[in-house]
Amino acid sequence: xxxxxxxxxxxxxxxxxxxxxxxxxxxxxxxxxxxxxxxxxxxxxxxxxxxxxxxxxxxxxxxxxxxxxxxxxxxxxxxxxxxxxxxxxxxxxxxxxxxxxxxxxxxxxxxxxxxxxxxxxxxxxxxxxxxxxxxxxxxxxxxxxxxxxxxxxx
Length: 154
Hints:
Elements: E1 16-20, H1 24-35, E2 41-52, E3 55-68, E4 71-80, H2 84-92, E5 95-103, H3 106-114, E6 120-126, E7 131-136, E8 145-151
């Protein structure tokens, strides 16, 4: 990984912190009652055909979302399937896994970062809705992945 030059990519402010948990319901209860975070909205989602380390995979997640000022807190529990989330839980346990940035040039950023050895490890899109995202392996320094999220007009 080169550190001789500054990247031409300029990201907007962080808008989300993603936390991997073993039990969303238990975590929400603790965060709301003890820490005063929330309220959280909980939902389950099934994602089909995600790219996880270059291979297609299906996964079912339970997720909870709450705002903390301008930052969204996302809690993720893996219910079924292999994903970057289940890998994180298996290797590191619960904790902050990623920060998210909404961008309007996802492909350009991925191409630029690939020159530095930064690669997508989890990707998915809904072309009919204009939504795409990629988690990239920025955790090689500092331990936190970056999620790039893009919404294009359809």
